[in-house]
Amino acid sequence: MTTTWFITGTSSGFGRTLTELLLERGDRVAATLRTPTRLDDLAARHGDRLWVRALDVTDTAQIREVVDAAFAELGRIDVVVSNAGSGVIGTAEELTDTHIDTLIATNLTGSIQLARAVVPHLRAQGGGRILQLSSMGGHMSFPGFSLYHATKWGIEGFYDAFAPEVEPFGIHTTLVEPGMIRTPFYDAVVHANPHPAYADNPAVIRGDIPLEQMAGDQTKVARAMIDLAQLPCPPRRRLLGSDAYARVHDALTQRLEQFESQRDIAMSTDADDYVATAAMA
């Protein structure tokens, strides 16, 4: 049976690879990107199985317009992939106001608004899937990537609350959390102007990251996302990459150990007449 997908950010990276794989397997794809001509080769090869529209996810009105058009023209969309995103490297002090506003609008606000736009359609058709591209960086962090992590931790929190809201409608969501994958994403990352005060800071990452230091394979990640969308009961989160598993496992283990050491202090601040309910205990 043919599956219909809606994907943002299809010009390169995961979005492009995922689109290619889906078309090759006979699925239909509603592909969105800022410059539609970048998919002209796929349109010529796959005809009306590829539906292409211009979309800048920082434009909320355009998100709603394109989503409405896709459901109206394609009839049903089974899987929505919120993939568009970007990154900025630089310490918090080095970032500009524009860096902050643009990255939050792209990675966080745009993803939230896309989810809000598709829910009424998915609910009306009796369900569907949403795959939200997150990152291992939604659980841990690297100095010099504070803004990127802020957007990923933010989308993790949004989906943690959003998932149980929509599951009664047959809408299942998964946060896809890759590690460092060999994609063009890193070539497009913006580098803030370095501040001399941080020149000798050993914690801050500078320069390019060699591909051989990245564990993940772009095509394998895309195939794993396709498999994920076919599961009858998909997980709310999916780590992809050995580095993602190791780093997230270590970060959460360390965080839990810190919280355990603070248990007595936490309990000591309760009101004297407070009685924990079963849900809170």
Automatic annotation (TrEMBL):
This is SDR family oxidoreductase. PANTHER family: SHORT CHAIN DEHYDROGENASE, SHORT-CHAIN DEHYDROGENASE_REDUCTASE FAMILY PROTEIN. It holds the Pfam family adh_short. CDD domains: 17beta-HSD-like_SDR_c. It comes from the Bacteria. InterPro entries: NAD(P)-bd_dom_sf, SDR_fam, SDR_oxidoreductase. SUPFAM superfamilies: NAD(P)-binding Rossmann-fold domains. Belongs to the short-chain dehydrogenases/reductases (SDR) family. Keywords: Oxidoreductase. Signal peptide: none annotated.
